[in-house]
Protein 1
Amino acid sequence: MQTPSIVLNVNGIEVIYNHVILVLKGVSLQVPEGGIVALLGGNGAGKTTTLRAISNLLKGERGEVTKGSIELRGERIENLTPADLVKRGVVQVMEGRHCFAHLTIEENLLTGAYTRHDKAEIARNLEKVYTYFPRLKTRRTSQAAYTSGGEQQMCAIGRALMANPSVVLLDEPSMGLAPQIVEEVFNIVKDLNDKEKVTFLLAEQNTNMALRYADYGYIMESGRVVMDGPAVELANNEDVKEFYLGMGGGERKSFRDVKSYKRRKRWLA
Ligand SMILES: Nc1ncnc2c1ncn2[C@@H]1O[C@H](COP(=O)(O)OP(=O)(O)OP(=O)(O)O)[C@@H](O)[C@H]1O
Ligand SMILES: [Mg+2]
């Protein structure tokens, strides 16, 4: 089988907020064409910052990439605007969903097509979104504020799809949702990946769920990638199980603590 080409290549990036706070300390990752890559790690690990660096949404947060490079299909993109990136097929679905509360679901979806002008094409796209998210079709005239958390997450993803992206950066799709709904959302992600060939880079604290759907994962801690590998390998890795899948029992420490603890244990044994 041919190895898939790399869509996104993040190469040793550093990100600083407010000119002084160094948050990403040399992050590198690669996303293959047609893949689902999970960016994992606990609170404050740097997942959102990494996604924002890629989609160039750091400025509003007073953040900037100070080192390293980001390439989309081999082309440097650090200096493109978020709108340029949307035109090139890279869209981010923000953490916390951010639907426009006073607009209906359909109006929300249509805002996602703001870079496009072909009305017939937009209408076809809307129908396609509804085939993947039938729940949104039944709620199309409801104000987003009165829909459930799951429907709002679907609306946020559906809106991103209205830009006809090839790469979706999805930030914590499971946040605040019941397990059954998380499963429903992830199944749709998988479906979009299979049938529409949309590539996903998804940030998740829900390691267990993300590794079930992703092909490959990167684990972040304190602004660095501490481990990466095929999803199946990460899901079966003892350290990952102990610290992120909560199967080891006992108190959860940092990933680096575990590794040095294990080294010590081996040393003493
Ligand atoms: N606008 C900002 N200004 C200053 N520091 C920030 C800003 N945004 C994030 N940070 C800091 O950067 C670090 C990484 O945050 P980030 O939001 O990227 O983590 P995360 O992995 O997405 O966490 P979570 O899972 O909680 O969403 C944290 O220490 C956070 O406090
Ligand atoms: Mg985050």
Note: The longest helix spans residues 179-196.
Protein 2
Amino acid sequence: MAKIVVTGATGTIGNAVCKHLLERGDQPVALSRDPATATSRLPQGVRVQAWPEPQAQTAPLDALDGAQAVIHLLGEPISQRWTEPVKQRIRDSRVLSTRMLTEAIGQLPGDRRPTVLISQSATGYYGPRGGEELDEQANPGDDFLARVVRDWEQEARRAEEHCRVAVMRTGVVLSRSGGALAKMLPFFRAGIGGPVAGGRQYVPWVHIDDVAAAMVHCIEDDGATGPLNVTAPHPVDNAEFSRALGRVLHRPALLPVPTLALKLLYGEMSVIVTTGQRAVPRRLTELGFRFANPEIGAALAQVLSRS
Ligand SMILES: NC(=O)c1ccc[n+]([C@@H]2O[C@H](COP(=O)([O-])OP(=O)(O)OC[C@H]3O[C@@H](n4cnc5c(N)ncnc54)[C@H](OP(=O)(O)O)[C@@H]3O)[C@@H](O)[C@H]2O)c1
């Protein structure tokens, strides 16, 4: 039974990762700002420890001591209006917590350090892009999110002097319990969903089970180093995504949602749906990782069939 430390375990991705680890017989140790709430939210068998101020305190050494891996997911939610204080929290929660985590890893004696840090990142690294295929070699973007992600990755990679580091450039995660799909569902169910901002921008979607499985794959595979796109092998544009969702829900998905409406509703944050990236998982494919849900229609049907 390997001890695996997970930050942000109470979130959409973290919860799925903890379940996956428990099924494998590992011992997940969740680090949370609020251990009581975390204990009530997480599956039985996950041990919870406090990390009250991830941006200001190094991660608890006793939690990290002897862990096989650390999976670092925590971060202030992106999908909210980006006021200046919110932007600061989006940035600091990721960049500073990663610094506090890598400092703690460095403080452990060499033989007590994790062998790998799996650090969350995002396809937002590439910034708004057209139909250009983006593998891990592609250049970074230069908007707010791209700069946050670049700095977030840089902090994670400081741990390379202590252990192997894989940074997971994750796309739009399909899950019922949170994220973009959960927000879209009420509109599509009511028959008022449709292509956003013209529908030509790519959606680098990925099924939640594949996200959890890719992280576990990268714990085991010594070849998993540096950036890895965690996106399904067949990205689709927003129009095709909308059509697929409409088909699965047996609802029309024809009502276009204009950019201006989204800008008025969400402000600058609307870029996360009005723009996108055609990211492809070149590194994961090279490592032999097999996506259980490679096609959008079947992936949506699978996620939505869950209670
Ligand atoms: N979901 C997606 O589609 C997607 C795609 C690409 C990348 N990502 C990234 O992957 C990570 C996990 O995503 P998720 O969807 O699982 O996130 P989530 O559901 O919003 O959960 C994130 C967790 O981070 C902790 N957290 C929230 N705000 C924080 C703050 N200001 N400071 C410190 N900790 C904070 C919380 O844990 P506690 O309250 O227990 O401390 C929370 O449960 C995030 O960094 C996200 O940006 C997500």
Note: The two ends are 30 Å apart (CA to CA).
